[in-house]
Amino acid sequence: MLLVERSGYYAWLKRKLSKRQQANEILDEKIVSIYKKHKSRYGAPRITDELHASGTVCGKNRVKRRMKHLGLRAKAKKKFKVTTDSKHNLPVAPNLLNRDFTASKPNQKWAGDISYIWTDEGWMYLAVVIDLYSRAVVGWSMQSTMTKQLVCDALMMALWRRGFPKEVLFHSDRGSQYCSQDYQIMLKRYGLLCSMSRKGNCWDNAVAESLFHSIKT
Predict the structure, then answer these.
(1) How far apart are the first and last CA of the chain?
(2) What is the helix, strand, coil percentage profile of the chain, to 5?
(3) Is 31:63 a contact under the CB 8 Å cutoff?
(4) CB neighbour list of residue 170: distance below 8 Å, 6 or more residues apart
(5) Helix, strand or coil for residue 111?
């Protein structure tokens, strides 16, 4: 048996590590702490942001390498509620966007969608309008029920904030809210072109899906 204090032994081990290794150990502890704090939902970009906010200087690529070394990977919440009611007899618009999510200027292409999220007031439906040029949310509405008014309010906010631009291509899924007469009249009244995803194909509205994924995780 070695007559050595436990703390002294581990201190000796520390001295055997290079400065880089010691720095990695300190960084690893911080990464694990942030990862656990956010219930395993933060990946390298967000963990890097928190490290910077706390005064730790490191790059995203280094954090990514350390997370891989530690076996840490961001977990996403599983979707649990369908928000697209496409079982209706309302008119459906063609897919004019055709997965071309690029835009050469603002107010050229907008995308809209609805999701179900947790808030301080309980579960709520959130409808958004995204400008595909900047990926900015230019309009939104939140209600406890999923009605046509939800999407109409989100669109009206976008129109007001952007000065009522004309000939914007507006893309959405083919849910009953977007196919409703009130919503379609609103699109025509303000000179917007309607485009809709194919049935059951979430990739046709991938930008909006990505936004809701980020909000939920």
Answers:
(1) 51
(2) 45, 15, 40
(3) yes
(4) 109, 110, 111, 112, 129, 155, 187, 192, 193, 194, 195
(5) strand
- CB atoms under 10 Å from CB of 91, counted, come to 11
Q: CA-CA distance, 84 to 175, in Å (whole number)?
A: 5
Contact 110, 170 (CB under 8 A): yes
User: What is the token pair recorded at 7?
Assistant: 């703390």
Name, in order, each residue with C-beta under 8 angstroms of 65's C-beta and a sequence gap of 6 or more: none
Q: Write the CB contacts of 54 (distance below 8 Å, at least 6 apart in sequence).
A: 30
Q: Sign of dihedral through CA atoms 115, 131, 165, 98?
A: negative
Average pLDDT (69-75) is 84
Strands 122-131 and 136-143: antiparallel
Alpha helices (runs of H) in 95-147, residue ranges in sequence order = none
Whole-number Cα distances in Å, 72 to 59, 75, 82, 214: 17, 9, 30, 18
Write down all domains in the chain, each with its CATH number in brackets: 6-70 (no CATH), 109-216 (3.30.420.10)
Tokens representing 105 are 């200027």
**What is the spatial distance between Cα 177 and Cα 172, in angstroms, rounded to a whole number?**
10
> Among the listed ranges 97-101, 117-121, 186-190, which one has the minimum average pLDDT value?
117-121
Nearest 5°: CA angle at 215, between 37 and 180?
155
Q: For 42-46, 49-53, 115-119, which range has the lowest pLDDT when averaged over its residues?
A: 115-119
CA dihedral 83, 210, 30, 64 (to 10 degrees): 140
